[in-house]
UniProtKB/TrEMBL annotation:
It is found in: Cell membrane. It is a peripheral membrane protein. Keywords: Antibiotic resistance, ATP-binding, Nucleotide-binding, Transport. This is ATP-binding cassette domain-containing protein.
Length: 336
């Protein structure tokens, strides 16, 4: 299945400099820069309508950018779109699955499109159907497949041509947890063979699980970029929360832990903390020395949700209003 590359792979599977795209007066991508090292998973995150699909469509040659210096697989998108197309696979919200024919026939059609010899096409189709747990359903029309099965078939079809760079636009949307985990495993396996994955997702956990680097798209710009861990460090807010039921104990603790943020009504104290065992022990020691015991101790470490909501706060008010979120809004943070 693996084709021998005629040249050593380019160190960067994808580079975009000053990528710009507008629809009429509306700027969707406002001169963004992206670099995706070969053999890594890169995730583009953003609220609905941020322009993730637009970026995927441009980088996969489906639509053209208004401006930008764009290279995919070492090929210039503006002058060598054909070579880019030969290097990539795309699956996304624009599925290639034909519902009128069976899963197997869809796969064989792809094999024909890639000019695979008949026997190799059959073997590749069978292997991929097996790998995506579609062997049993292979002879049924794809229209009878569940959403998850169609999505798996779509990705299997993409892999027929052994692309070195794969664009996955929300690959697990609509999948149940088991299928989602299967897909994660498949994506991880792909990367071990040197494939580069450009992933958009609405699931922050997915980016956290899979991506080597994550870029948060907001207002047409990259608001922040880094590994999941690096992005989490951008957002202060790790804390320990102590809750008391006895007002005397609460007051005694508050006078001992003077740096804590007090909530005199809820009888809670909040202290900045990285959640480490050492810091927790220090807090507990200080409570002990004051002779008080909290009724509840909870640790909050910032997760990717916090980062995402903090960075995209002003356009996600519908989701952010229920839960108080920090309003830190770096204009551009790159962590290396
Ligand atoms: N052909 C088009 N003509 C005009 N506007 C468009 C066109 N395609 C997309 N847009 C607009 O561009 C913006 C970005 O759309 P895009 O689909 O790239 O967002 P997205 O981040 O992928 O969102 P989602 O997660 O909802 O798919 C949206 O406001 C959308 O309405």
């Amino acid at each position: 299945m693996t084709k021998t590359a005629p040249h050593p792979p380019h160190p960067h599977a994808i580079t975009a400099k000053h990528l710009h795209k507008a629809y009429g007066a509306k700027t969707i991508l406002d001169g963004i820069d992206l670099t995706v090292p070969t053999g890594t998973v890169f995730s583009l995150l953003g609220p609905n309508g941020a322009g993730k699909t637009t970026a995927v469509k441009i980088l996969s040659t489906l639509i053209t950018a208004d401006a930008g210096d764009l290279h995919v697989g070492g090929h210039n998108l503006a002058t060598d779109a054909q070579a880019v197309r030969a290097a990539i696979g795309v699956t996304g919200q624009f599925s290639a699955v034909d519902g009128l024919i069976t899963g197997e026939e869809n796969m064989l059609l792809m094999a024909d499109l890639h000019h695979l010899p008949r026997s190799e096409g059959r073997r590749t189709a069978a292997e991929l159907l097996e790998r995506f747990d579609l062997t049993e359903a292979a002879k049924k029309p794809a229209s009878t497949y569940s959403g998850g099965m169609k999505r798996r078939l779509d990705i299997a079809m993409t892999l027929v041509g052994s692309p070195r760079i794969i664009f996955l636009d929300e690959p697990t949307t609509g999948l149940d947890p088991r299928s989602r985990h299967t897909m994660w495993r498949i994506i991880r396996e792909l990367v071990t063979t040197g494939v580069t994955v450009f992933l958009t997702t609405q699931y922050l956990e997915e980016a956290d699980q899979l991506a080597d680097r994550i870029a948060v798209l907001h207002d047409g710009r990259i608001a922040a970029e880094g590994s999941a861990e690096e992005l989490k460090r951008l957002i202060p807010g790790g804390h320990v929360r102590l809750r008391f039921t006895d007002p005397d104990a609460y007051r005694a603790a508050a006078s001992r832990l003077r740096e804590a943020v007090r909530d005199d009504e809820a009888l809670t104290l909040q202290l900045p903390s990285d959640g480490s065992q050492r810091e927790l022990r220090a807090v507990l020691d200080r409570l002990d020395s004051a002779g008080v015991e909290a009724d509840e101790l909870t640790v909050h470490t910032p997760d990717l949700d916090d980062v995402f909501f903090a960075l995209t706060a002003d356009t996600t008010t519908d989701t952010a209003t229920d839960t108080p979120r920090r309003s830190t809004q770096p204009t551009k943070e790159t962590v290396r």
